[in-house]
């Protein structure tokens, strides 16, 4: 099977002809499915190039997507309690390579990420995904229903994997030899959650830009609102001014890595001073400078967040991400997912609103940590001891989740396992993707191939499914993570070799920054 067949992207010959064995196996599959807690909604053959039907999909989740490959699609309900169930899909490709993969969600979950299913199935994986237990990116379904919250916290991905594996064995007589997980953001948290809680589920886990330390990530949204205030506050900073602050932070921090390329390789090696932006007495254009109060507020917003108990709740925002965070956290109102979490989960009061927030609310939320949703447990010995691999990455320009939080977890694991990085390397590697935003985008070489959004067919081997398969099945661990920067027309501008933590990239002076070999991982 092997990597060649895994990675040879296939162009399919239109719809299959009548009498096609795969297609008829798909047509008769529904009758064979008799799995506990599973109610099949539909089984249909989908040919490459066809639009994926949205008839069975909840209105809030409908999307438009063209299949890249021929596959058999199973949609179903999976019951998880007498008050909760999942909506799930399995995509079983014609060109199957003997591997299973489970996919995750985003935000407050609530939709099967069909683009991820399409991506993985294209590489021959039997792929499953669920909606995380509710439809739509909102916390309201958790109100008065802890079972729905349990699905979101930890249960949905596991239940989806149990069912997905059973379907895979049922559909393909040869079964599967390896099982994987792929997810980013909430999907990243779900990946770590499975590693911690269901360590036997996967041989390889790809977890990116993880929303772990979840409750404090939620709390941090309130801290950032408190730090930056309402639009009519005297020290409020508009998004235009955040763009000015961003330019100044890049001016101060970009050269630290040895190359002035607009990219801050590792924001933890800089301590920008924003008072340099305070308007001087001759300033004519106040839209390009700050008041003293604004400089203080911006500095606070870019500081670590401590709870009322003196504990570090959440590490500061990535320097370099501030301009992109303006539309998320500095809008003059509390981040909606944060407000909803307090309303529907912490206070269980549909009339609660952000004006009632105090620092003690953060502690209340932290202490509550329902179903251990935070996914921050560093004891992952069972996962290590069974030989599974955890491949993790985080963009250093992530405006929604601090990449420092992924480093924090890495260090907690090192502490808990009493293992230095060279030993953790055997099974757990964390890569910092400089200039990558939240799961993609950003100003840097962020095309690392973890999904349709960061994959370019112009560099087909830069594909994290390929990377994790090589590591798990051939023992070839990734030394660095290659990423491409694309220009506006989708051509590759340059490639960079992103370092694995705790190393970070330094430009050695010889050669252009566009030359990947002019960089060295140090530390
Ligand atoms: C399946 O993959 C092989 C190469 O791995 C390719 O030759 C073949 O055309 C593909 N078939 C279909 C139906 O996709
Ligand atoms: C699946 O669940 C939905 C609610 O989300 C329900 O409307 C539908 O009837 C269920 N379908 C089956 C086949 O149980
Ligand atoms: C498939 O979807 C696209 C847009 O999403 C639409 O333009 C096209 O008409 C659809 N094709 C079919 C056969 O429905
Ligand atoms: C089936 O659902 C029930 C709750 O409705 C749950 O207790 C049980 O563990 C589930 N069984 C399987 C095999 O998932
Ligand atoms: C699983 O591995 C065995 C032994 O290498 C091999 O014979 C078999 O074909 C593999 N099965 C699949 C589904 O790849
Ligand atoms: C003021 O500064 C801002 C931000 O640098 C710039 O966009 C704008 O054009 C300037 N206005 C004038 C009148 O110079
Ligand atoms: C939430 O409040 C409702 C009343 O509004 C109550 O019935 C319910 O038991 C509460 N749930 C929890 C988990 O406290
Ligand atoms: C928030 O709640 C307070 C009362 O606790 C109320 O006075 C205020 O109008 C509410 N704000 C919004 C935006 O609903
Ligand atoms: C870590 O987990 C393993 C396996 O569950 C357990 O045996 C061990 O006691 C745990 N270690 C700590 C420090 O809790
Ligand atoms: C490095 O490459 C960039 C992009 O091709 C180019 O604009 C720049 O002039 C080069 N710098 C040097 C010092 O060669």
- Major sheet details: 9 strands, mixed
The largest beta-sheet arranges its strands as 1-2-3-5-4-6-7-10-11
Mean pLDDT, rounded to whole units?
95
> What is the name of the CATH architecture of the largest domain?
3-Layer(aba) Sandwich
Signal peptide: 1-18
InterPro entries: AB_hydrolase_fold, Tannase/feruloyl_esterase
Organism: Aspergillus ellipticus CBS 707.79
GO molecular function: feruloyl esterase activity; metal ion binding
Structure keywords:
523 residues; alpha/beta; Rossmann fold; 2 domains; nine-stranded mixed sheet; 15 strands; disordered N terminus; binds 2-acetamido-2-deoxy-beta-D-glucopyranose
Overview of this protein structure:
This protein has 523 residues and is α/β, with parallel strands linked by helices. It folds into 2 domains: 364 residues, Rossmann fold (3-Layer(aba) Sandwich), CATH 3.40.50; 114 residues, no CATH class. Helices cover 31% and strands 18% of the residues. It has 15 helices and 15 strands. A hairpin with a 5-residue loop joins strand 12 and strand 13. Bound molecules: 2-acetamido-2-deoxy-beta-D-glucopyranose (10 copies). One 2-acetamido-2-deoxy-beta-D-glucopyranose binds next to loops. Its EC number is 3.1.1.-. It catalyses: feruloyl-polysaccharide + H2O = ferulate + polysaccharide.
In short:
By secondary structure, the protein is an alpha/beta fold. It folds into 2 domains: 2-215 and 373-522, Alpha/Beta hydrolase fold, catalytic domain (Rossmann fold), CATH 3.40.50; 223-336, no CATH class. The protein has 15 helices and 15 strands.
């Amino acid at each position: 099977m092997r990597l060649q067949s895994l990675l040879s992207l296939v162009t399919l010959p239109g719809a299959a002809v009548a009498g096609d064995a795969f297609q008829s196996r798909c047509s008769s599959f529904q009758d064979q499915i008799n799995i506990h807690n599973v109610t099949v909604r539909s089984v249909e053959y989908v040919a490459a190039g066809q639009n994926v039907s949205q008839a069975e999909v909840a209105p809030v989740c409908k999307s438009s997507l063209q299949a890249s490959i021929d596959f058999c699609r199973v949609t179903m309900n999976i019951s998880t309690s007498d008050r909760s169930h999942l909506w799930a899909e399995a995509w079983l490709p014609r060109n199957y390579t003997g591997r299973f993969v489970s996919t995750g969600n985003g935000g407050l979950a609530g939709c099967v990420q069909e683009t991820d299913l399409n991506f993985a199935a294209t590489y021959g994986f039997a792929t499953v995904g669920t909606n995380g237990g509710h439809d739509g990116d909102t916390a309201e379904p958790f109100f008065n229903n802890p079972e729905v919250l349990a699905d979101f916290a930890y249960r949905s991905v596991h239940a989806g994997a149990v069912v997905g594996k059973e379907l895979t064995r049922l559909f393909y007589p040869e079964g599967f030899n390896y099982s994987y997980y792929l997810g980013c953001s909430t999907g990243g948290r779900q990946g770590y959650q499975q590693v911690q809680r269901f360590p036997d589920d996967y041989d390889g886990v790809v977890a990116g830009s993880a929303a772990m330390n979840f409750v404090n990530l939620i709390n941090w949204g309130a801290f950032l609102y408190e730090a930056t205030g309402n639009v009519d506050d005297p020290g409020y900073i508009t998004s235009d001014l955040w763009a000015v602050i961003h330019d100044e932070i890049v001016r101060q921090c970009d050269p630290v890595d040895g190359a002035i390329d607009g990219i801050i390789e590792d924001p933890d090696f800089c301590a920008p001073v924003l008072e340099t932006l305070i308007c001087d007495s001759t300033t004519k254009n106040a839209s390009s400078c700050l008041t003293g109060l604004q400089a203080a507020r911006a500095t606070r917003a870019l500081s670590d967040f401590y709870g009322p108990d003196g504990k570090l709740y959440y590490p500061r925002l990535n320097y370099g991400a501030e301009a992109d965070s303006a539309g998320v956290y500095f809008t003059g109102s509390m981040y909606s997912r944060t407000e909803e979490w307090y309303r529907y989960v912490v206070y269980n009061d549909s009339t609660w609103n952000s004006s009632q927030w105090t620092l003690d609310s953060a502690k209340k939320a932290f202490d509550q940590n329902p179903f251990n949703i935070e996914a921050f447990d560093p004891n992952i010995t069972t996962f290590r001891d069974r030989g599974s691999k955890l491949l993790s990455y985080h963009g250093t320009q992530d405006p929604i989740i601090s990449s420092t939080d992924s480093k924090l977890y890495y260090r907690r694991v090192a502490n808990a396992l009493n293992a230095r990085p060279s030993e953790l390397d055997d099974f757990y590697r964390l890569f910092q993707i400089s200039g990558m935003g939240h799961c993609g985008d950003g100003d840097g070489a962020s095309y690392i191939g973890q999904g349709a959004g960061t994959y370019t067919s112009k560099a087909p081997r830069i594909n994290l499914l390929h990377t994790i398969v090589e590591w798990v099945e051939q023992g070839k661990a990734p030394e660095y993570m290659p990423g491409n920067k694309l220009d506006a027309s989708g051509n590759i501008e340059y490639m960079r070799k992103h370092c694995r933590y705790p190393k970070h990239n330094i430009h050695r002076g010889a050669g252009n920054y566009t030359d990947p070999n002019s960089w060295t991982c140090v530390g």
